[in-house]
Amino acid sequence: MKLSQAETPRLLLDPGKLQRNVERMAARCVALGVILRPHLKTPKSLKVAACILADKSAPITVSTLKEADYFAQGGYRDILYAAAITPNKLAHAGNIQRATGARVLLVCDSVELVRAADSRAREIVAEFEFLIEVDSGEHRSGVQPASQALPGIASALKDAANLSLAGVMTHAGHSYTTDKVDEHAAIAEAERAAAAGSAEALRAAGHDCAIVSAGSTPTVLHAKHMAGVSEARAGVYLFGDLAQVSLNTCNLDDIAISVLATVIGHNKANGSLVIDAGALALSKDIGANRFMPDAKYGYVCDVKTGKHFPGLSVQTVYQEHGMVPVPDESWFARLAIGTQVRVLPNHSCMTCAAYESYDVVRDGEIVEQWPRVNGW
Amino acid sequence: MKLSQAETPRLLLDPGKLQRNVERMAARCVALGVILRPHLKTPKSLKVAACILADKSAPITVSTLKEADYFAQGGYRDILYAAAITPNKLAHAGNIQRATGARVLLVCDSVELVRAADSRAREIVAEFEFLIEVDSGEHRSGVQPASQALPGIASALKDAANLSLAGVMTHAGHSYTTDKVDEHAAIAEAERAAAAGSAEALRAAGHDCAIVSAGSTPTVLHAKHMAGVSEARAGVYLFGDLAQVSLNTCNLDDIAISVLATVIGHNKANGSLVIDAGALALSKDIGANRFMPDAKYGYVCDVKTGKHFPGLSVQTVYQEHGMVPVPDESWFARLAIGTQVRVLPNHSCMTCAAYESYDVVRDGEIVEQWPRVNGW
To answer: Same structural domain for residues B77 and B196?
Structure first.
């Protein structure tokens, strides 16, 4: 189908840009000497995963058990569910392992959780491997790398009848708070040191620690080295977005997704175009605005070239309407009612979550639809 | 299923509160002497619609053609698609009419659109009725009530081979910019006058104008009268949310939906609970914060009583994590890891859109699942 015939809003994917982003990160991980465990919370799509990983035995990361289920059913065998588990989710995780043979690696950061999880695991007659989460400076979750909590949790896992320790993980999410590449490198070093140091501390206390997992898109892209880390996690690099552009981790031309929208009105009194992509089609994420205040709810771009129309952003969103102020009246002729535009979003993880599928575009035509999984 | 056994996050619906909200608005519309055309962009659910309307010939409003299709397939016969149409959506609208016999009323606010739509309607051999949108002060879309544009569009519709005029509509969305009930009443009067006056102007120019449609939750609730208006549109009143509480259009106890979440961590260094409801489960809407700055991403409430824990809000969201600062250490014992909480969201239209269904809760048990339709 030609784009011009397509109803809007819809989510477009440029497979060439995706491929370039995939290759860039693959080359980074080879250079860093780490295995890539891509975070599939961004694409949530088997078709996208197949662009990253030739082999389904390769490790992956997910953010929900629904994703874990979907990718396990799709043939993936080594799945890290990268948020702390709770007892009421263990039966689901156990069912995925039983039904598919996949390993669903879980995360914990307290003895309290280990004990509750072991009790539940025994009830449902299931066994689970855990990574202990370490806080490398984001201060969201995880134990302090040097604290006594770390060997305490490892011992609790050793004492647990149905649980075992597989390693450590950390995520330096505070890499999103700076647009300076040298600061990304410094945060990457803190992330590396927290993960590698924690693994060493556990080994010194007599625990095995096969997996040492760390990463975020900015830190993996800008790390000087990842000595002592076995695997890198990153997700949003796949598609990029305005937030990543604002952090200097990609360029506008690297953004592989966009929202196809149509001009549905000209508000000449206000000097604005009205488009049919609003809060649901774009999301209300404005993360790019910290370092790129003209990003607003998204850059408005030419549908054919994908180039940003200078000065055009979605300034205001309603549920299904977006308002795009224009610098002068000439834009009303240039972007007549019915004209399509593309919008580059702030945050691809949030924007994509509103859509059931990606429309894969080659040469101005939608050539395939790639489904994705949403919800929980 | 007992709530305590349910995986989280999930979207809970209290049918008793929904029913109370439905009855309140029904009584308002009776008192105002207008027909209610509920905006189903909030619930997007046939089961919820059945709680509002006893009779499927009653008029409804939708925000996407996917909703129009869903409700037409579900038996509704008079459906207003309340955003300006574009030619690339007309085939879809025509197919809905043809397949179901429902009327899909469309909206326009320019001669340019009328001409393009008529050309397309003739190509696809379909006929459509239109409402002309009037701007009653929101300045999003619509023509000025007193302007020459209004009869101009009506004449273009008269000249169009396959289109006809069914009436006028307006939405005073700027009622969301004040929490003063008397200002809501003043905006309601501006909305009423714009709609009724536009209808009178069209009739004076010789046009039929059967439908005179106006409304938003704050204006319909606080209008003194709606003389000259035939029907009221409102949607978010069905569920309420923190934004509506902040606008003084409902109370906390009226909010019919909540997100069930689980405490997955205790960040004692930061004095925060970590819950498994983040940006996707709650949305990034923070609309309530303008008049209720402690709303943050949502009020954290007791799972059983539904009462707000004083001082507890979701302060920060990540994709699947929410951070809830606690006033003192005692909360870590009170809300142990694994404990469930409910979160009252900022904006129910946005939050519900992340879920495929509502879990209907009676007496602490999920007794039914009501599906909803998302996307485009």
So the answer is: yes
